[in-house]
Design a protein that fits this description.
binds magnesium ion, Aliphatic_acid_kin_short-chain, binds adenosine-5'-diphosphate, binds acetylphosphate, 38% helix, ATP-binding, 2 domains, 6-stranded mixed beta sheet, Nucleotidyltransferase, domain 5, alpha/beta, kinase
Length: 403
């Protein structure tokens, strides 16, 4: 008797990391989860947790030159638990792909034409699409017979109206080069906005939610009745909030100034704004835990970086309140949003006029569960809703291959 293929492997390849999960979609459980960090650096680190066997968490440190090496190491870990990629139980592999342009609005079976389109979009997602492509190519080489599905960060944002998606620049130039606001982290914004509605006991179609996805990359979205109507990232994942290493919003003339006055090349400016700006540019650290520790020790650069980060968040909360007209909930998610109570408290401080507040005791609770942190009777519900991009990608992948 051959067991049914009911399992999905999800690969979420970031610029220097891979998060992965193996899930059984019928038994509704995760069999293995893991993370490879610092790919391409001197020492990479793989952390693998074999949930199915109940085995111990395994940690390996050593150099992994690229995403190909990382993925082969992941495949070896899975094989060691009897969950290898050669398993007939595997139904598909689901890949997070960051930039899908306008062409991909749904999960898509990957073929050569799809790969070519993801490749064509590399210039507008230079930190992400190359890693996604390597992940896909390695996975296809390991299991050429298996459906490989791409789930795009941009898909959820394709409902944005033209007045939110267009930049106010010459239309002919914009159209010739497909310059518009695409938005990213869409899988997370979709999952979290729906999960927030459920937390309120409502259908997603009934509620307006502002989602703050605050990870290393960070973005805000305004979701009206389940549809995205605005988001803070644009043509590329550089626009919007202050991030770990990215500037977010700046006057575009800063770039001309850097070129003309500081003599920097386009590539150097790109590197400056994407990798040496944001929190790391302001204070040398991009990890919010380290920044809070330094603030507690009286470090002024860390305190200013934190204040700039919070000021930008408040501006988006105000903007999206105006865009939505009525806000039912604000949801904090991703590494910073889920874990950093001081960020949530500071972002909400003084926003009583918008109907937003946090209860200090509720905000201090540490938990993996979606939860409200606003006081009872608050006009806007403020929530912490852990994201699960991998589950969302697995569900979309399995739905496509079993349709
Ligand atoms: N306990 C914590 N307290 C504060 N910040 C945290 C904590 N845990 C993680 N973070 C922050 O979350 C970030 C990573 O978030 P994550 O959503 O995993 O990002 P990404 O998916 O972009 O790699 C870290 O850089 C750190 O700033
Ligand atoms: C699009 C994006 O910024 O993704 P990440 O947060 O994984 O870097
Ligand atoms: Mg992320």
């Amino acid at each position: 008797m051959t067991a049914e293929p009911t399992r999905v492997l999800v690969l979420n390849s970031g610029s220097s990391s891979v998060k992965y999960q193996l899930l059984d979609m019928v038994e509704n459980r995760r069999l293995a989860v893991g993370l490879v960090e610092r790919i391409g650096e001197e020492t990479s680190r793989l952390v693998h947790t074999p949930l199915a066997t109940g085995g111990e968490r395994r940690v390996h440190e050593g150099p992994m030159a690229d995403h190909d090496a990382a993925l082969k190491a992941v495949a070896a870990e899975l094989a060691a638990d009897g969950l290898g990629l050669d398993s007939p139980r595997l139904a598909a592999i689901g890949h997070r792909v960051v930039h899908g342009g306008l062409r991909f609005t749904e999960p898509t079976v990957i073929d050569e034409a799809v790969l070519a389109e993801i490749e064509r979009l590399v210039p507008v997602a230079p930190l992400h699409n190359p890693a996604n492509l390597t992940g896909i190519r390695t996975a296809r080489a390991l299991r050429p017979d298996l459906p490989q599905i791409a789930v795009f960060d941009t898909a959820f944002h394709t409902t944005m109206p033209e007045h939110a998606a267009r930049y106010a620049i010459d239309v002919a130039t914009a159209d010739a080069h497909r310059i518009r606001r695409y938005g990213f982290h869409g899988t997370s914004h979709a999952y979290v906005s729906r999960r927030t509605a459920r937390l309120l006991g409502k259908d997603p179609s009934e509620v307006n939610v502002i989602v703050l996805h605050l990870g290393n990359g960070a973005s805000a979205s305004a979701v009206a009745g389940g549809r995205c109507v605005d988001t803070s990232m644009g043509l590329t994942p550089l626009e919007g909030l202050v991030m770990g290493t990215r500037s977010g919003d700046i006057d575009p003339a800063v770039t001309f100034h850097l070129k003309r006055v500081a003599g920097m090349s386009a590539d150097e400016i790109d590197e400056l704004l994407n990798k040496k700006s944001g929190l790391v540019g302001l204070c040398g650290d991009n990890d919010m835990r380290e920044i809070r520790r330094r603030i507690d020790e009286g470090d002024e650069a860390a305190a200013l970086a934190f204040d700039i980060y919070i000021h930008r968040l408040k501006k988006y909360l105000g903007a999206y309140t105006a865009v939505l007209g009525r806000v039912d909930a604000v949801a904090f998610t991703a590494g910073v949003g889920e874990n950093a109570a001081p960020v949530r408290a500071a972002a909400m401080a003084g926003l009583e006029g918008l109907g937003m507040a946090v209860d200090a005791d509720r905000n201090a609770v540490r938990s993996d569960a979606p939860r409200l942190i606003s006081p009872d009777g608050s006009p806007v519900a403020v929530a912490v809703v852990p994201t699960d991009e991998e589950l969302e990608i697995a569900q979309q992948t399995y739905a496509l291959v079993t349709a």
